[in-house]
Design brief:
The protein is an alpha+beta fold and about 170 residues long. The protein is about 30% helix and about 40% strand.
Amino acid sequence: MSLNHTTSDQGFRITGWHVLGSLLAFFGAVMVVNVVMVWAALSTFGGVETSSSYKAGLEFTDEMERAAAQRGLGWTVNAELAGNAAQRIVSVDATDATGNSVAGLAAEATFAHPADERQDRQVILFETAPGRYEGDADVPDGVWSLRLAFSQDGEVLYRSRNRVTLR
């Protein structure tokens, strides 16, 4: 008995060119998605806390000495925020260890955004009374880190950082 098989070439056959084209298309799509994701990550997030961790590490001892000197001053600093998102007023009262007002300093407040330093807002505080410093802040509602700095003759004498929620 003899069997005659006839084959039909009308069906679809996967060739080496199909496999190569599929692999190139797949990895090309992966590369395009990676490029888009890297671009989005680099263009939207500016929340780097320090530009050089090596330099920050070298300055750690100096920072500890400044913190000890600040504690030695015994200052008490109280900050208040009044107003709404359209106009906020920052008021800061500073007293020394004996309860006397700390006057004649340059004062500055910074509202630091927790995730994006490009949104930080700086406020120059003016002395309105001995030991009382005030300034207008254009800061929207949200969670911020309020940084206060008092300096004299270019030397920072007092710094603080507090988390605040503005509503």
